[in-house]
Every structure is written in C-alpha cells, then in structure tokens.
Design goal:
By secondary structure, the protein is mainly alpha-helical. The protein has helices spanning 23-45, 51-75, 100-118, 122-140, 142-147, 191-213, 219-236, 251-269, 277-280, 282-289, 298-303; strands spanning 13-16, 19-22, 161-167, 179-188, 245-246, 249-250. It folds into two domains: 15-153 and 194-303, no CATH class; 157-188, no CATH class. It has eleven helices and six strands. The chain has a two-stranded antiparallel ribbon. A two-stranded antiparallel ribbon has the order 3-4. It has a two-stranded antiparallel sheet with strand order 5-6. Strand 5 and strand 6 (249-250) form a beta hairpin. The protein is globular, with a radius of gyration of 21 Å.
C-alpha cells in the first residue's frame, strides 16, 4: 500500500483550437533557450564571441533533433516496424522519443563543421557548452513526466510516481494525448526524476571543477560525457519499458558503458590547462583589445575577474 506518491500530470497535450500544445515540446524548447543563454556567458568568459553561440545553435538544434530521433527509432525499431505498427509514427517526434547520443553526435558534427568553416577551435566551445547541455537534458526530461513514459518498475516507496489511465474524447486509451480518468494504473519508480537529479548534480560538478581547475582543451566536455553515462548506466537498469537488447543488456546500458570508458580515457589524454582568449578567437580578442564594441555581453564577461564570470 502506497502512503504517498508523486502524481503525474492529468494530460500532456492541450489544444489551442486545432493546434496541439505539447508539454514535451515545450520542455525541449525551454532546455534549448537555457542552454543557449548559459553557453553565451561561458563562451564569452573564455574569450569567444557570444554571437558565435547563436550560429552554433542554428545548426546544432535541428541536427540534434534529427540525430536524436534517428537514434531512438533505430534502437527502438520494434515500436515502429512491427506487424501491428504504423511506420509513420517514427516521424511523430512530439509523441516523445529522442536519443541523447544521436543528438550529441549529429549536433556535434554540425557544430564541428561550422567551427571549421569559421576557422575557430572547437574545444573551447565544447567546454563552454558541456554544462549547458546536461542542464538542458534535465529540463527536457520533464517532458517524460507529462508523457507518462520511461518509468521504472512498480514500487510503493514514498516518492513513487502515479501512472494514470488517459483516454481521448471517444473513451479510447491514449497514454500521451489523452486526459486522465483519475484511475491509477500503477505506482512506479520515477526514473525520469532520478535522471533529472543526477543531471543537475553533474551540472553543478562541471561548473565547480571548471572554476576550480580552469580546465580546457575539451576536458570539461569529456567529463560531462563520463558523468552523464555513469548515471545513465545505473538508471537504465531500473527502466521497464521495451528496449532493444544486446548481449542480454538494454542497448542504452551497453552504449553508456562503452562511452563512459572512452570518455575517461579521452579526459586523461587531453592537455591540461585552459586556452587563452587569443587562442579561443584571435579576431574577437583583437577587437576587444582595441576597444571596439563586440556585441552581446562579451566585454563584460571577458573582463570580469576570476570567480565572477559565471554567476
């Protein structure tokens, strides 16, 4: 018997006339906005032009969404390509389903191409964006709460999550687009909440370590990857939703283990220290040195004393 539990939202989709307003999409958008804002501050503090962050967002966001959806569809293909499935559902991104690794790989590739075209080093930007990415992931995970998805096994712990029956206007079961009947289907482990808390912990760790040790050359990003995969490895063990199995393990569990090992090795091999502002963006540094307006908050961030650049 559950004495206390976390309620799920009664619905995850609202309608403005014929237009659906989806909480999942709103959470992703909120995460992107926060990530861009934080990355601008952090990249400027390293000596980069914050306007470059907007350019990166323009190419990274669509590429990341496409990559995330591709990863999800490939690794959970049984949900879309079975005898009773509708393959068109693979395109319905607003129903949920984005794989972070596909998003990071394709989004990262798009940004790498952009920085190569701009002839700027990628590592300082990667270190600036790393904490912002995992903070955005934490915000985006709230979308799983609204969609009543990616939860763990049934439990009666005080922080258990209530999963409701949701139905559409015709009374048919509609877990994502329907409205709650108030009837509880089950109380389960809120694995989305565990991941949110873990992501926030990694975010705080990255900010602290970067300030304390002034890391650069891609080491903050490598630490982000290692930290995220470490948490994802154990959280994945708690999920009960259907998943592709490889060697008896959920595919995301296996990917997390492999990527964690690779990230630790890369972190140990990368050069210590941080790039100077002139190394991050020579042209932007020269403009600041000459007193030319740089736009955005570059001057204030770059000229701020150590320890006051990331509030």
């Amino acid at each position: 018997m559950t004495l206390a539990a976390i309620p799920s939202p009664p619905q995850g989709v609202w309608y403005l006339g014929p237009i659906p307003i989806r909480a999942y999409a709103l959470c992703i958008i909120a995460g992107i906005i926060v990530a861009v804002w934080l990355t601008r501050r952090r990249y400027a503090a390293r000596g980069g032009n914050p306007e470059v962050v907007l350019d990166a967002a323009i190419v990274a966001v669509p590429a990341g969404i496409i990559g995330g959806r591709l990863y999800h569809v490939i690794t959970d293909n049984q949900k879309y390509f079975c005898s009773g499935c509708n393959p068109v559902d693979a395109l319905k991104i607003t129903n949920g389903g984005l794989g972070i690794w596909g998003a990071v790989i394709l989004g990262g590739l798009a940004v790498a191409i952009l920085f190569r075209v701009k002839k700027l080093p990628l590592a300082p930007f990667a270190d600036a964006v790393a904490p912002a990415i995992i903070l955005a992931q934490a915000i985006g995970r709230l979308g799983n709460w609204f969609n009543q998805e990616l939860y763990g096994a049934e439990t009666n712990v005080p922080w258990a999550l209530e999963i409701y029956y949701r139905v559409d206007d015709a009374g048919r079961l509609a877990p994502v687009t329907g409205v709650s009947t108030g009837e509880v289907m089950a109380t389960v482990h809120p694995t989305f909440l565990y991941e949110i808390l873990w992501n926030l912990l990694v975010f705080a760790l990255l900010i602290w370590v970067d300030r304390r040790y002034r890391m650069g050359h891609g080491r903050v990003f490598a630490l982000y990857v290692a930290g995220y995969t470490l948490g994802r490895f154990w959280i994945e063990q708690m999920r009960v939703d259907e998943a592709t199995m490889v060697f008896g393990l959920r595919i995301n569990t296996l990917v997390s283990a492999v990527v964690f090992a690779a990230a630790v090795i890369v972190f140990l091999l990368l050069k210590k220290g941080r790039e100077t502002p002139s190394e991050v963006d020579p042209a932007h540094h020269d403009r600041l040195a000459s007193g030319e307006p740089a736009g955005g908050d570059a001057v204030a961030e770059t000229d701020a004393p150590r320890g006051a650049t990331e509030r």
